[in-house]
Amino acid sequence: MAELEEGTLFCPECGARVDNDSDKTVVLQEDLDAVEEAANEQPAGGHKIYEDPVRQGQADQAQQPVYEQPVSREEPVRQEEPVQEPVQESAPVGGGEEPELCFCPNCGNKIESSSVFCEFCGYRMDGTQEEPQSYAEEEAPAGKKKSRLPLIIGGVAAVAVVAAAGIFALPKVMDMMGGKGKSDIPTELMYIKDKGIYGVSLKNSKKKPVEYTDNFADSDALYNAVDDFDTGFKLISDDGKYHFIIEDVDYSGTPTYTLSYVKGKKDPVKIDSGIEGYYRVTEDNKIVYMKNDNLYVSDLKDKTKLASDIDYFYLDKAGKNVMWEVSNSDGTDDIYYQDLAQKKDKIKIDSDSSVIGMSGDLSKIMLRKEDSIYLVKNQGDKEKLVGDVDEIMALDIEKGTFFYTASVDSKVKAMDFVDDDMAAADAQLKEPVRSDYERTETVGSGYFTYERTVVDDKYYEDMSKYQEKQERDRLREQLKEEEIASPYTELYYYANGEKTLVTSEFMNSISYFYITQADREANKDFGSYLMYTKTNSEEMKKVKLSEINYASDVSYMLSESRDKSVTYCVYAAGKEAEIDLDGKSVGNTMKDAKNNLVYLLLRDEDADYDDSGDLYSLSLNASDLGKMEERDSDVDNLELVSKGNVYYLKDTNDKNVGDLYCNGDSVLSDVSVYSVQSVPGSSSVICISDPNRDKDRGTLTMIKGKKAEKLSDDVNDYYAFGENSVAMLTEYNYDRMKGDLRYYNGKETYMVDTDVRNFFRTY
Question: pTM for the complete prediction?
Answer without folding.
Answer: 0.73
